[in-house]
Design brief:
Layout: H1 2-13, H2 21-37, H3 41-53, H4 62-75, H5 79-97, H6 102-117, H7 121-136, H8 143-159, H9 163-177, H10 187-201
Helix pairs in contact: 1-2, 2-3, 2-4, 3-4, 4-5, 4-6, 5-6, 6-7, 6-8, 7-8, 8-9, 8-10, 9-10
Length: 203
């Protein structure tokens, strides 16, 4: 229950003493992250901005926090700020762990969506493909993130008019959902996205 979890983290962030503000910032991050998940981006943005601006944030937590802030701005359709923070997330992840890591791949996937929204279909698709390929190479150890990247790329293929490529990825996701050990985005998200493809493609 994300709403209940969000309330717990929000309360927890108020309880940390002054010498544990890094823990308080981590709790606030989860509040903002959960608001993003609920689609309440106007609530997520100021919380995540506070965390990003805090000098108490542990440096290895900055990439994921910058990414979450970028996603909040994406949800608010402020694509210039979304692009800014997602690029910062990538830069900080590269500094911390090198060019090939999950934080970079996550942010590339989100930045791909932003580029598409800005009308840059070619770069947006390439970024989503980079993200998908990274997680495809690690799918045995992390099925959830692999399927999340697969759905993201399927949506971008669909919106770019690459209906056959999108259908292949949606069908693979729907087949996985039929299995008992599926791990990934909620099945109703996948079904709605697949149905939208049928409307857009006429098939």
């Amino acid at each position: 229950d994300y709403t209940r979890a969000q309330k717990i983290f929000e309360k927890a962030s108020e309880l940390f003493p002054a010498n544990q503000q890094d823990d308080a910032m981590d709790a606030l991050f989860h509040v903002g992250y959960d608001y993003n998940h609920l689609g309440e981006f106007s609530k997520a943005q100021p919380i995540l901005q506070k965390v990003v601006d805090s000098k108490k944030l542990y440096y290895k937590d900055r990439p994921k926090t910058l990414r979450a802030l970028g996603v909040a701005y994406e949800g608010l359709k402020n694509y210039s700020l979304a692009e800014l923070y997602l690029n910062q997330s990538i830069d900080e992840a590269v500094k911390a762990w090198g060019a090939v890591n999950s934080n970079v791949a996550f942010s590339q996937g989100a930045l791909g969506r932003v580029k598409i929204a800005q009308g840059n279909k070619v770069e947006g698709q390439k970024l989503a493909e980079y993200s998908y390929k990274f997680f495809a190479g690690r799918r045995k150890s992390n099925q959830y993130d692999y399927n999340d990247a697969k759905l993201n790329l399927a949506n971008i293929y669909r919106d770019n008019g690459k209906f056959a490529e999108a259908r292949g990825l949606y069908d693979a996701l729907l087949k996985d959902i039929a299995d008992d050990d599926y791990a990934g985005p909620a099945s109703d998200f996948v079904v709605r996205a697949s149905d939208l493809l049928r409307k857009q493609s006429g098939k």
